[in-house]
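Quick one:
INPUT:
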C-alpha cells in the first residue's frame, strides 16, 4: 500500500547549520576585539576636593564664569558672547594673575555652551579651570 504525501524513494534532506554558526562565531570574535580598542573622547575636569573649611580670606577672588539654563555665558555677572571669552579671561587674568578660574554650570545647560566656554578659557592660557554645578 502506498503512503499518501511522501514517496518511499525520496530521502529527507537536513540543512547543515554548522558553517553558519562558524561564521557567526567569527563575527562575534571580530566585533569583541575591535570594540575593545575604541577610545572615547571627553573633557578633562578638575574637581576641587570637598572640604568643610571656609576659604582663605587672603586668597585672590576667583574669576567666575557662569553658564545658565538658557546657555548664556556670564563672566563676572556680565553676559559675554562665546567668541569674547578668550579676551575677557585674558584681561581678568592680567588684573588677577593668581586667581583661579571657576566655571559654574547650570544642570540644564547644553554641552555645546560648556565646551565653547572651556575652549575659550583654555585658549586664554588657563590650563585647568574648575567646573562646578550651580544651585539652580
Amino acid at each position: 500500500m502506498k503512503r499518501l504525501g511522501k514517496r518511499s524513494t525520496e530521502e529527507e534532506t537536513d540543512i547543515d547549520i554548522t558553517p553558519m554558526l562558524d561564521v557567526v562565531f567569527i563575527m562575534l570574535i571580530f566585533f569583541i576585539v575591535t570594540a575593545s580598542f575604541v577610545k572615547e573622547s571627553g573633557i578633562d575636569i578638575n574637581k576641587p576636593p570637598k572640604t568643610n573649611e571656609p576659604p582663605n580670606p587672603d586668597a585672590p577672588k576667583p574669576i567666575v564664569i557662569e553658564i545658565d539654563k538658557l546657555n548664556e555665558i556670564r563672566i563676572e555677572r556680565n553676559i559675554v558672547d562665546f567668541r569674547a571669552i578668550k579676551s575677557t579671561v585674558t584681561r581678568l587674568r592680567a588684573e588677577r594673575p593668581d586667581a583661579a578660574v571657576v566655571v559654574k554650570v547650570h544642570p540644564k545647560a547644553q554641552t555645546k555652551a560648556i565646551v565653547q566656554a572651556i575652549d575659550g578659557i583654555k585658549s586664554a592660557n588657563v590650563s585647568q579651570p574648575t567646573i562646578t554645578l550651580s544651585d539652580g
